[in-house]
Amino acid sequence: KRSRLKMLAVIGLGLRVVLGGAVLYALFWALWLQKHPEALIFLLNSRDKQWKTLPDPEVELRRAPRTGGVETRKIVFVRHGESTWNVTFNGSKHPLYFVGRLLMSVKHELTLLYKGSADSWFMDSPLSVLGSEQAKEVREFLQTHGGEDTVRQLLGEKGDSVLVTSNLRRAISTALIAFADRLARTKEKIFILPCLQEISRNPDALSITPAGAQPRVAWTEEHLATRMEDMYANHLDATFNVGNKDVSSNGLQRMQEFNEWAFAQSKPMVIVTGHSLWFRSYFREFLPRSSTFPGKQVKMTNGAVVEFDVQRVAVGDKYIYCIRDESARLVHGSFKNA
After folding, report:
1. Could you tell me which residues come within 8 angstroms of residue 265 by beta carbon, excluding any fewer than 6 positions away?
2. What is the DSSP string of 156-174?
3. Tell me, what's the pLDDT at 114?
4. How many CB atoms lie within 10 A of CB 54?
5. Distances, alpha carbon 283 to alpha carbons 96, 180, 253, 280, 290, in Å
6. Which residues touch 161 (CB under 8 Å, ≥6 apart)?
7. In this predicted model, what pLDDT tens digit does every residue of 295-334 receive, in sequence order?
8. What is the full DSSP assignment across 293-331?
9. What is the DSSP letter of 287?
10. Distance between CA atoms of 68 and 91, rounded to whole angstroms?
């Protein structure tokens, strides 16, 4: 009887702890959403993943009468390093591990709120410490594979190319770190393109940088502060940064906007630092339906690099964009399901 009472007492205490934790968690998010109301608006109203899939570009080109020649751009996708959001939500789903990561994340966010910082663990989530290392690994890959044509192009030693990045900080920092050697030599700037913003309704896919403004170095990169502040100040071009994606827009609209931008450039190669869902969606829309390229089904890993040729053909009063299936190639890293 006593053991049963003890067991009930323990269960009762456990329930009170869980209930108390749930109340505190709810209060935290209420406070957080008060500071970031746009995050709630996107969570409830975003149509970012809602669009009608385009017809098979290969079939379209075969059937439709062409009214112009074939133009080609070489595109290189570089996925950003791990973000703080990835740390919290992409690890083990075991309750004990997940709750531990969540508590750590909330602690960091509360510290930033207490300090009055405009920074965030969740909103426009920056690179984690591991993410910075993954960006450095891309740089090291370029340093040690300089004999390859594609690497020489990425380093700006061969051909003519332009560097662009999403307006989200994890992509910006990855680009600055990965291409640091090229930037130091050429003194060029990386264009910030909001059309590359990740396809998601989650807060980590929303930019905290106002339209036209220069992004600021994230708090997670304080160990690289001096160098990163210099790179943010001297190697970013916010000319095209019109701010956050609109809540009524969707990923396909931004992908098409990127296509138009890429072909409006005089340089034949565009090097893009961006996001896994955006990249996977791009492969799904513009590769032939018959293509078995893995990027259509699974994500590029953090720091992975993929190159391909995309063609543009005028058909009537519109353009059709199609990736040459045989040109798609994994240059560095791998693909994964998670």
Report:
1. 73, 162
2. TSSS-EEEEE-SSHHHHHH
3. 77
4. 15
5. 36, 28, 15, 5, 12
6. 74, 153, 154, 267, 268, 269, 270, 271
7. 999 999 999 999 999 999 998 888 999 999 999 999 999 9
8. -GGGTSEEPTT-EEEEEEEEEEETTEEEEEE-GGG-EEE
9. S
10. 49
Helical segments of the chain, H only: 2-35, 37-45, 57-63, 84-89, 95-114, 129-144, 149-154, 169-178, 180-186, 225-234, 251-264, 276-286
Distance CA 209, CA 216 (A): 8
pTM for this one?
Answer: 0.90
Q: How many beta carbons lie within 10 A of that of residue 169, not counting itself?
A: 28
Contacts with 180 (C-beta within 8 Å, 6 or more apart), sequence order: 139, 231
Q: How far apart are alpha carbons 154 and 182 in whole angstroms?
A: 8
Q: How far apart are CA 175 and CA 338, in angstroms?
A: 23
What does the block give as tokens for 297? 């089904």
Q: Does the structure show a pLDDT above 80 at 280? A: yes
**Maximum alpha-carbon separation in the chain:** 88
What pLDDT digit, counting tens, does each position of 183-210 carry? 999 999 999 999 999 999 999 999 999 9
pLDDT on residue 117: 82
SS3 call for 148: coil
Three-state DSSP state, 212: coil
3-state secondary structure 249-270: CCHHHHHHHHHHHHHHCCCCEE
**Tokens 């690497």, residue located:** 151
Share of the chain above pLDDT 70, in %: 91
**Of residues 284 and 88, more confidently modeled:** 284
